[in-house]
Design a protein that fits this description.
The protein is α+β, with helices and mostly antiparallel strands. It has six helices and five strands; from the N terminus they run H-H-H-E-H-E-E-E-H-E-H. The termini are far apart.
Length: about 160
């Protein structure tokens, strides 16, 4: 069988298999298939949701998340993160393209976390994607999302 004929056959098999799936089947498989990775926007949203929830529980009246895209290869995730964090929490998600710190350290995307515990907003956290795991494993596709928080600043201003 020629390469073209094999490709045509495989495409037809896949088309027939796909036609039998419902939208619910596709979503169920998306959630459980270890070969399907959710996008980086999802990782950023989950990471920042955890931070925003923690700061709100410590008494932050407002949390501001400033996202900075560091290269064009990183999709704009600001709207997706804002939508994922919409709700009862007092969270504002904004683009911060003017940020200069973290360039050369973070790759793709970085963020600042600012919180107001009643005495004005202050920087309490910082994070982004780094290429450490990719370097360790020799795989440029590997990504690691990290963040750090000044718990001393949070404790001093939150009354926690």
């Amino acid at each position: 069988m020629s390469g073209t004929a094999l490709t045509t056959l495989l495409l037809e098999v896949l088309r027939r298999q796909a036609s039998r799936l419902s939208a619910a089947d596709v979503m169920r498989r998306y959630g459980s298939d270890r070969f399907v990775a959710q996008g980086r926007g999802h990782a950023v949203a989950e990471h920042l949701r955890f931070a925003a929830d923690g700061l709100a529980r410590l008494g932050a009246a407002r949390v501001r998340l400033e996202l900075t895209r560091l290269d064009d290869a990183m999709p704009d995730v600001t709207e997706a993160v804002a939508a994922a964090l919409a709700g009862a929490r007092p969270v504002q998600v904004v683009d911060a393209p003017q940020r200069s710190s973290g360039r050369g350290y973070y790759t793709g995307l970085c963020f600042k976390v600012r919180a107001d515990f009643g005495a004005g907003a202050l920087d309490v956290g910082d994070g982004g994607f780094v290429d450490w795991t990719g370097q360790l494993l020799g795989n440029r596709k590997e990504r690691l999302l990290i963040s750090g928080y000044g718990i001393d600043r949070i404790a001093a201003t939150s009354g926690a």
